[in-house]
Amino acid sequence: MKSSATNSAGMNKKSGIKVAQQTFGKTDARYWYDAIFKRRYVRNGQTLYVEDWTARIQWRGRRELFSLKTPNKAAAAAKARDIYAVLAGAGWDAALAKFKPEMQRKSASTVGEFLTELEKHWSGKPKTFGDYSRSFRTIVSQMFGINGGKEKFDYATGGRAAWVAKIDRIKLADVTPDKVNKWRIAFVKKAGNNPVKQRRARITCNSLMRQAKSLFAADLLAHVAIHKPDKLPFDGVAFYERESMRYHSTVDIEALIGDAIHELPQEQLKIFLLATMAGLRRNEIDKLPWSAFRWNDGIVRIETTEHFMPKTSDSGGDVALDTELLAMFRGWHAKATGAFVIEADGEPLAGTSYTHYRAHRHFDALIAWLQGKGVSAIKPLHELRKEFGSQVCAKYGIYAASRMLRHADIAITAQHYLDTKERVTLGMGNLLAMPPNVTPMPRPDATAKAKKRGARK
After folding, report:
1. Which in 87, 116, 254, 445 has the greatest CB count within 10 A?
2. Where are the alpha helices (DSSP H) in 214-281?
């Protein structure tokens, strides 16, 4: 509390000279005398103040408002001091229980209780919450050595449920930033000294952390009736530097299309063409209805249907098709027996926490065929979409590719998918004289042409 000889600005009332002010610690009521305030509100255009004083108190990254329940400023400052003392000595739970019992929240003591409570307040797609939860459980299981073996993939007879139950019994407070950081480092070390495996491990690690951390977003936790730990699991944990995701083509797409036309069964060929020549994603292909084709306009339209919702609000849109491709699908449409382009035994499932594919058998068979053709990417089918984007970019530019791939931002197109196939060179090779002791090699295209002539003979 300031001396009566000075005003709030620290000026001596008699002399008008500014004097040095004494500073007080937060365990001194005099510190809070000038920190507390009265909350205001507007009624009929007039600003009014509540009668009781309020304190805004921060501790270990968390901030709360406390009504001090008294109009007496000195008493209010003393109470703010008492709240801070309990907070510093015993933590948030004790301070809330004593001074803010009406706002005390249920304690989520385990990972399972946290996720169960959080899901009640989740307003997004069930699959998104499922993905985030799986990533968090994966991190926790590896952190605490809950392996699960092959049984964790047993959805039918309870193996996975038993593995998840073990993870869900872990106390949320034990999932500390220090342990998460040690897991992050160990995750990449398991890749050994192979630079390719290390790169993949860093990408996977970042992906798991990014999804799991989304469960602890402030705007989500603000509506959840549980206590947050004093330190959230991912507070202060650094991500690995973003790896370049630029697509570099290793596919002879013309040869691959030729082989597909002659070798693939009808449904697999449909999938292949929609991915390669229209850039559609797997789920878009799986649930694509025949009504999506606009035959007169020469396009296929990706939009929300009874059984499908685009990946994001920007993922919908029209994709122009080559005349020949459109003619092939029009021919298949004439003989179609169902509403979906890809004919399959399965029916679409709604509201699942995972992505369900009607035509998973056709997808698996096509992936096996692609791998047999040398497509070595982790996701061979998605590699076809990347090749589509690369081809469009090389011919028509990045803006056209971004539209055709239906990306939310052109930066995504530039970062992830494209590799210009038209190589630019300096153009001064004509100035080089071949040394007499070097035998010039034939050009690759000339060698290929010679082989073709020999094959025809």
Report:
1. 87
2. 218-221, 253-263, 266-278
pLDDT digits (tens, 9 = 90+) for 310-361: 877 778 889 999 999 999 999 999 999 899 999 988 888 776 767 788 999 9
User: What stretches of 130-210 adopt beta strand conformation (E)?
Assistant: none
Q: Which two tokens stand for residue 347?
A: 């029916």
CB-based contact 377:383 (threshold 8 Å) = yes
Cβ atoms < 10 Å from Cβ of 391: 19
Long-range contacts of 444-450 (CB under 8 A, 24+ apart): none
Q: How many residues are present in the chain?
A: 457
- Sign of the Cα torsion 444, 445, 450, 453 reads positive
pTM of the entire predicted model? 0.60
Contact 329, 341 (CB under 8 A): yes
381 within 8 A of 274, measured Cβ to Cβ: no
Q: Which two tokens stand for residue 366?
A: 């096509």
Provide the β-strand partners of residue 392: none
Question: What angle separates helix 380-396 from helix 360-372, to the nearest 10 degrees?
Answer: 70
Q: Which phi and psi angles does 287 have, rounded to 5°? A: -115, 20
Structure tokens at 202: 């860093």
Q: Which DSSP string corresponds to 56-114?
A: EEEETTEEEEEE---S-HHHHHHHHHHHHHHHHHH-HHHHHHHH-GGG--EE--BHHHH
Q: Measure the CA–CA gap between 9 and 34, rounded to whole angstroms.
A: 11
β-sheet bridge partners, residue 110: 171
**Backbone CA torsion sign across 214, 218, 220, 225:** positive
Specify the pLDDT at position 332. 93
H/E element, 47: strand 46-49
Measured between alpha carbons, how far is 387 from 256 in angstroms, rounded to an integer? Answer: 11
Burial class (CB in 10 A: 0-12, 13-18, 19+), 75: middle
Helices (H), 305-379: 323-334, 360-372
Per the DSSP assignment, residues forming a β-bridge with 41 are 48
The CA–CA distances, whole Å, from 61 to 104, 177, 209, 374, 451 equal 18, 14, 20, 52, 70
Rounded to an integer, what distance in angstroms lies between the CA atom of residue 116 and that of residue 129? 11
